[in-house]
Fold this protein.
Amino acid sequence: HAELAERVLRFMISQREKEGARCELAPDTDSFNFVIRGWTRCRSSPDISERALDVLQLMEKYNSTADVTVQPNSRSYGLVMDAIAVKAKHKASKCRKRSDRDDPSKNGLDEINGLQNLIESFHAKKKASEPHIEPSTYCYNILLSCWASISFLHHNAPLEAERILRHMTSLKEAQGLKDVGPDAFSYIM
């Protein structure tokens, strides 16, 4: 179904390219986000993050070549983060029986570092007054969930999750960023 959704999206893009701004089938941000969400539901697919990233890059290209109003938003990035977290979990679960448990490229830590860097870039974009990208509790919860799911492999995972939770609380209380404050899911993780 995700492949079919992506084919429909690509058809919509080709129609927009043929017909220009008057196209009634032109995709919007939600169109791209639905396809990314479709890929994130393919939890057992080994290339889930690559597929989600491909659609995100397609949206960025569409934004620069066809329609400046269609741009990735926090939801787009959050969905891609979810796909990256799934990949980290897959890698960590394969390391249970391998000798390469300490290799960040094989144990999920590279993906977690990427997620943390992505959240930091959200804060930088918000400071640069890019209103379509904002850090959110949803994004932080994906990171917390990722740490929780690989805690069997990484002894420092609980400490990292606690550090993130405290950071979220600090952002909410000290900086007034209410949209990144921890919720019940954050504490469960």
Remarks:
- The chain is about 65% helix and 0% strand.
- The first helix runs from residue 2 to 19.
- Residues 74 and 133 are 5 Å apart (CA to CA).
- The two ends are 30 Å apart (CA to CA).
